[in-house]
Specification:
six-stranded mixed β-sheet, 23% strand, globular
Length: 289
Amino acid sequence: MHLTEPRRVRLAVLGSPIAHSLSPTLHAAAYDVLGLPFSYGRHEVTSGGLAAFVAGLGPEWRGLSLTMPLKREVLPLLDRTTPLVDELGVANTLAFRTVGDTVERHGANTDVEGLVRPVAALGTPISEATVLGGGATAASALVAAVRLGAGLVRVFLRDTAKAGRLVEQALRLGVTLEVHPLTELPGTRHAFVVSTLPGGAADDLEIAPAGPDAVLFDVAYEPWPTRASTRWSDEGGRVLNGLDMLTEQAIGQIRFFCTGDDAEVLPDEAAVRRAMRQAVGLAPVIGAR
């Protein structure tokens, strides 16, 4: 592996609240397998505080993982962005790169692949999707659904007036989008559901699997399991959770931090993935029942 900026050894996840984040656990497991001397911490940074935090960092810093409420706030601070950041208007990764005599801030979005890879690993064909929620993660879920093969996406959110970004995004992607209030979520069975709602917020919604290959991707992981995921599993459907997403998006971040490209596969990435999943209590193989 060609390691960019070998003297940059510090990384961290930023956001608010952040004390619960398992990103340090995931990244530490990965860097141990890769034999890299990186330190990865966490810092509470509230809305409006990101620019000052970044400005105060020294040359030992390699990059930052960003969670809410910073994924849009970071955009004005970036010198270069990946096409996906430009498409979504959301970045969850900031890497520091020395270019000539200056240090540039490069932004990436690994959330989409964090959703795509676990579902793809199940081998279940996707033709349509139901997305619960309308925030930044819902935007990633829309792109992920399209990449997985969905030609129709139904979005259910509390306030349909806030679906403008998703509607514009669907037009650019060329996918049929239906927008509905959460109160109109049908009691029909679903083949593929992505819940981007906070932990437990989907528990009283009527979602049930259409069959044994139906997938619920509940991006919550604390508390876990949610009642919604338990009901889905009890009825024979397959369940992925927020730790599946967190692990896969972290792998994309590690690629970006180490190689400069979130698509460049890491050395022995299968071993890296197993170590990360086991570190947070997941089965070594995605989707293992």
